[in-house]
Amino acid sequence: MKKALIASAALAALCPLAAAAAERRTLTISVYAFAQDDFKALVYDPFEAKCGCKLVVETGNSVERLAKMEANKANPVVDLAAVSMADALAASRAGLIDKIDTAKLADFAKLYDVAKDPNGDGMSVGYTFYATSIAYRSDKMKIDSWADLLKPEYVGHVAFPNVTTNQGPPALYMLGLALGKDTPDLKGPIEALGEKKDEIVTFYEKSSQLVQLMQQEEIWAAPIGRFSWAGFTKLDVPVAWATPKEGQTGGMNVLVLTKGSKNQDLALQFMDFWLSTEIQTKLAEKLVDSPANSEVKLSEAAANNLTYGEETAKSLKLIPSAVALDNRAGWLKTWNEKVGQ
Description:
By secondary structure, this protein is α/β, with parallel strands linked by helices. 42% of the residues lie in helices and 16% in strands. The model is unreliable at 1-22 (pLDDT under 50).
């Protein structure tokens, strides 16, 4: 009898734990594969510890991840996703995401204005952005304008991003501004590149190849995203970041909530955690992401390798998402006709 009472008491003591385990919620997020070890250490694990929930992380490229969201539209398996501005608008047009109740984000007011509602529809919040400009050999050339890339004395030492890359359209947009050919179809700058295509060293698809090309003096200049800049600073040749008179362009990544998700309250908690000054600072100091939170204060070393500060945030000339979505096919068609593969 005594043993039975002891066993019964032990079972009763375990019941709350069993119930708590059964009630442990799961939040599923869809993100880029980039820097996942750092995200796990700085964002995912601390959030799990804070919320007492389980975080499931799915990674992949944008096309694959958006296709999965579309395929599961009737019964969503992802609660929150990190995507580009343009992909967020595509998801919104497809009815895949919900409006964000920013009143539930304690850190929303701290964001730079450009990150608060990137597409102007209330469906996304920016968590990081980056500048795109020109990395160049300061001992070989001087860059005052994006059009300088096509100067006869420089063009034979230039690498330019392929139109299919993230850096391609923004760089073409700025080149078009410099050439006085600012139209959404990017026809002017693409045609200008086509005329010089045999002189340009390469139309690159991966920025990782550029550092070696510059070290070997095969190239002197290339438009790049700021997130690629750190590799150039380690070269034993003088490399500078251009501030052309037309300005800098760039891109922004945003967070969205899946329509029909049963965990939107938890997803909003996670979103707020990611946008917090503490987490944004840690990610920035690790050179993972440039901060969208205006309260982040960085060391000089980190600031020099990221897109940082209010002035920079205000100055970025981003391609509107609607322009990107509505013209992508046309950009590729013109590129293939004038520049080729």
